[in-house]
Each structure stands twice: as structure tokens, then as C-alpha cells.
């Protein structure tokens, strides 16, 4: 298996730090609002990574955190009058619901910043003892000039004034807060050895990694992931504080997913074009969104538009049409050649284009074989096995084949459709084909296509 290491800027063969175990940490959301497409893109990208690692036989420990204390959360508290717990738990639940709808598997460990304060205190104390910090107006800063390797991770060592918070008295523009002293009314503060206050953003992930999954040695974890926007300064600062405190490096491999654009414009709340997943799910099933979002290589930028999404759905439809042809089959007949080819594609830095080409070839070949041998049980069992493997590896193809084509139809409308079909079946039995044809035409006008099969009449949304 090969993955692109953002640090070295090249694809590298993946070799775990320890035996067959793999430790993965992915930066999770700051929970002050609903999840948007950027969250979905990152979650799906690293869900694919996790599935591929498992398919290769690795024992994976996957950690994704929740930042539940932050300026934006405090602003929400002050504007809504709700408590920190009320706001953050609401958006954690909302995030988990939306990601579940997208087929993203829950992390093995989901630490919260507010539940990891002791680990942060320990890390800050080590940095203080080693002389990497200074105090300013009740805050504790990391002195980047004391770290001779600062910016060696991202190689972005410019002092970018636009990307830095301007604080009078900071020794260097790149210095960042490890602990922020309490600023009075309206602030949210916690007791600490350094006085009341709250943690800086960067300290959280380093502390959580150390607390939950870190190895002792050259690298603390195998893979650290997140959005491309986190590489600098967030991940750079994580690496700096962890390496200065404990020696070695935070992660052996760094992986970053690309941005999401909407109609060619970088997604940003300031631009007013942030697309919430909960709104997308009102129109499109989560699996359709997943298939579309993962269809572009995880490192590339994704230009979200509905025309491409609908085209992506038609590609997914083909998999489910094949699944309909073997409907009701439970037995499988392992197709090692197909599994090897699909996994080999994903082992090339999650090469989804190559993987989908393998699947397209499989679908076309399977349909040809079924046309020639419609009663071949061994063939059908092999097709069933391959679809199950696709589901386990990519998180698609797991729905009931008939229900998939009925998505977007509410329960009341489904009852009406079923009643019309029953009326048509009765008319056919009575050889009243004129009424049967009228019902078929009426359903078509409603956007419903029906097919008569040995298992009865089935229908789908056109």
C-alpha cells in the first residue's frame, strides 16, 4: 500500500510503526454549527483510508476529536444564552447523524477538548520546563524561535501577517497560544495550574494523541490526517509542540484532503456559500452524496455542482441495476481476482478513479454474462460476493436494490403507488388489459416506471 505523505510531498510505501497495528488520528470539527460539505469530504476521505487499511489486514485504531471550546462556541453561548454543553452536544449529535447518513463509520475514540484538559496541562508544563514558552497578558505562548525545526513539516515558513492573529507583545508573528487566560465576563474559563482560562486550539490534538494512542519512540502515531487548510499552521504547530516536548515526531505519515468549491468558488461561510449536509440530505440520499464526494481523488479540489452529482448518481444506478438482477440471493462465491484488482487500485494512494474503472468493468462484464447465462447460480453468487466487497471497501452498494430506486418517495405516496399496482394486477388477472395499461400510463405520468417480474410487479422512480 502506498500513500502520499504531505510532509515529503511524495507517495511512500506504507509501513506501520509496530507490527500489524495502525494508529490514525484525524482532526474533527469545531462544534458550533452544522456539518458542511468540507466536513463530509474529509470524513469520507479518511473513512475510505480506514476501510482500505482494514481490507489489507491491519488492526486500525481510529481517533477523531471534537473541539468543544473555541471563540466561535463562546460567541454562540453569548448570543443564544445556552450552555456550552447544550450547544456542543447538539452539534456533536448533528455531526454524527449526518456522517452516519453518508456511511462514515464512527471513530474508535472520539475525545473532546474539554475532557482532555489534564493532558494539555501536562504538555504545557513540559514545554514550560524546557524553556519553549513565555507569558503575555495572562496567556502562555509557544516561542517558535526556540524550535530550530519549526516549519520543517509544511515547509511554509513565511511570516504571513494575514494568516496570523496580531497580538501586541508577541515575540514573533508565528508564536501561538498554548493557554489563554480568562478575559472576564462572557468568557468560558477552566481552572488550571496556570490560572483560569482555556486551551489554545493547537494544543488539543497533540495532547489527545499523547493521551490515547501515542507510541514511545521516533513517531507517536502512524498517520495524521485532516483538511488541506489544516496543514499550516495547525499541523505545523502540533508537530512543533509535540516534538519539542517529547522528542521525535508526531506522525510518520501526514495526509490531507482537498478543498470543496461550490460552482467554482472556495467554500467559505464569509462568502455565504457553505452547503450544510443536513440540507443536502433533504434532497439526496446519503449514499448518493457519498458516491459523488468520493468520486474525485481525495487530494484534489472538488467543484460541487448538482449537474455532476446527478451524473454520478447514474453511475451508481448501474451497480444497483446489476444488484436487482440477482435480487434475493444470499450465497456468495468469492472472486479473488476482482477483489485483488479493486484493492490494488485503492492501495495506490486511494486511487478512486482506478477503482471505479474496475467496478465499471465488472458491472459491464457481469451484465453480459447474465445475458448469456441468466440461470447460472455460481455466476450470481460471484456477483453477489463482489458487490458485498465493494460495499465493505467503499461504503456503497449496501442498500436493498429495489428500495434504492424508490428513494425520494414519501410513505403516503408509496402506499398510493402500491395500491395502484395492486389494482393493475387485479385487472390483469381479469384480463382487463385496457385498465391495466391506463394504470401503467398514469404511474408513468407520476414519474414511476413499473416492471413485471417472476417475483411480482416492481416499481422505481424515473
Summarize the structure.
With 462 residues, the chain is of the alpha/beta class. It contains 15 helices and 15 strands. Strands 4-3-9-10 form a four-stranded parallel sheet.
Biggest sheet details? 4 strands, parallel
The CATH topology assignment of the largest domain is Rossmann fold
Mean pLDDT: 93
| Relative helix content | 40-55%
With strands numbered from the N-terminus, the spatial order across the biggest sheet is 4-3-9-10
Structural shape: elongated
Distance between the termini: 41 Å
Classify the secondary structure makeup into a structural class. Answer: alpha/beta
CATH architecture of the largest domain: 3-Layer(aba) Sandwich
Count of the separate structural domains: 3
| Percentage of residues in strands | 15-25%
Radius of gyration over all CA atoms, rounded: 26 Å
Task: Count all strands and give the number.
Answer: 15
The low-pLDDT segments are none
What would you note in describing this structure?
The chain is of the alpha/beta class and 462 residues long. It folds into three domains: 247 residues, HUPs (Rossmann fold, 3-Layer(aba) Sandwich); 98 residues, Four Helix Bundle (Hemerythrin (Met), subunit A); 51 residues, no CATH class. 45% of the residues lie in helices and 16% in strands. It is built from 15 helices and 15 strands. The protein has a four-stranded parallel beta sheet with strand order 4-3-9-10. A four-stranded antiparallel beta sheet has the order 5-6-7-8. A hairpin with a 2-residue loop joins strand 11 and strand 12. Helix 4 packs across helix 6. The radius of gyration is 26 Å and the shape is elongated. The mean pLDDT is 93.
Amino acid at each position: 500500500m502506498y500513500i502520499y505523505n504531505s510532509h515529503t510531498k511524495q507517495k511512500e510505501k506504507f509501513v506501520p510503526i509496530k507490527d500489524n497495528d495502525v494508529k490514525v488520528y484525524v482532526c474533527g470539527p469545531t462544534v458550533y454549527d452544522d456539518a458542511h460539505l468540507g466536513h463530509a469530504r474529509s470524513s469520507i476521505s479518511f473513512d475510505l483510508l480506514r476501510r482500505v487499511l482494514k481490507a489489507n489486514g491491519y488492526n486500525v485504531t481510529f481517533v477523531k476529536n471534537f473541539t468543544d471550546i473555541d471563540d466561535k462556541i463562546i460567541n454562540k453561548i453569548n448570543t443564544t444564552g445556552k450552555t456550552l454543553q447544550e450547544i456542543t452536544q447538539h452539534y456533536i449529535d448533528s455531526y454524527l447523524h449526518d456522517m452516519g447518513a453518508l456511511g462514515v463509520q464512527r471513530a474508535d475514540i472520539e475525545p473532546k477538548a474539554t475532557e482532555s484538559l489534564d493532558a494539555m496541562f501536562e504538555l504545557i508544563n513540559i514545554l514550560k520546563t524546557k524553556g519553549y514558552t513565555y507569558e503575555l497578558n495572562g496567556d502562555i505562548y509557544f516561542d517558535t524561535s526556540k524550535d530550530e525545526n519549526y516549519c520543517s513539516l509544511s515547509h511554509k515558513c513565511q511570516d504571513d501577517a494575514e494568516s496570523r492573529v496580531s497580538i501586541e507583545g508577541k515575540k514573533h508573528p508565528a508564536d501561538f497560544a498554548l493557554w489563554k487566560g480568562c478575559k472576564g465576563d462572557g468568557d468560558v474559563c477552566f481552572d488550571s495550574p496556570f490560572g483560569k482560562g482555556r486551551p489554545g486550539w493547537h494544543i488539543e490534538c497533540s495532547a489527545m494523541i499523547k493521551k490515547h494512542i501515542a507510541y514511545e519512540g521516533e513517531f507517536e502515531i502512524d498517520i495524521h490526517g485532516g483538511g488541506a487548510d489544516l496543514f499550516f499552521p495547525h499541523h505545523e504547530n502540533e508537530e512543533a509542540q509535540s516534538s519539542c516536548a517529547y522528542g521525535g515526531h508526531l506522525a510518520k505519515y501526514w495526509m490531507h484532503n482537498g478543498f470543496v468549491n461550490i460552482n467554482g468558488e472556495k467554500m467559505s461561510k464569509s462568502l455565504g456559500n457553505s452547503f450544510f449536509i443536513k440540507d443536502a440530505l433533504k434532497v439526496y440520499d446519503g449514499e448518493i452524496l457519498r458516491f459523488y464526494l468520493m468520486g474525485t481523488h481525495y487530494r484534489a479540489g472538488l467543484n460541487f455542482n448538482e449537474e455532476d452529482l446527478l451524473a454520478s448518481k447514474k453511475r451508481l444506478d448501474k451497480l444497483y441495476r446489476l444488484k436487482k438482477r440477482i435480487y434475493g440471493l444470499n450465497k456468495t462465491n468469492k472472486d479473488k481476482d476482482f477483489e485483488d484488482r479493486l484493492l490494488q487500485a485503492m492501495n495506490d494512494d486511494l486511487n478512486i478513479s482506478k477503482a471505479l474503472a474496475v467496478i465499471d468493468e465488472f458491472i459491464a462484464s457481469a451484465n453480459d454474462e447474465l445475458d448469456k447465462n441468466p440461470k447460472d447460480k455460481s455466476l450470481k453468487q460471484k456477483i453477489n460476493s463482489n458487490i458485498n466487497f465493494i460495499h465493505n471497501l467503499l461504503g456503497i452498494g449496501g442498500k436493498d436494490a429495489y428500495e434504492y430506486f424508490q428513494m425520494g418517495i414519501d410513505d403516503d405516496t408509496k402506499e398510493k403507488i402500491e395500491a395502484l399496482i395492486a389494482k393493475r394486477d387485479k385487472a390483469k388477472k381479469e384480463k382487463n388489459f385496457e385498465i391495466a395499461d391506463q394504470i401503467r400510463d398514469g404511474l408513468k405520468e407520476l414519474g414511476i416506471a413499473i416492471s413485471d417480474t417472476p417475483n411480482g410487479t416492481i416499481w422505481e422512480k424515473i
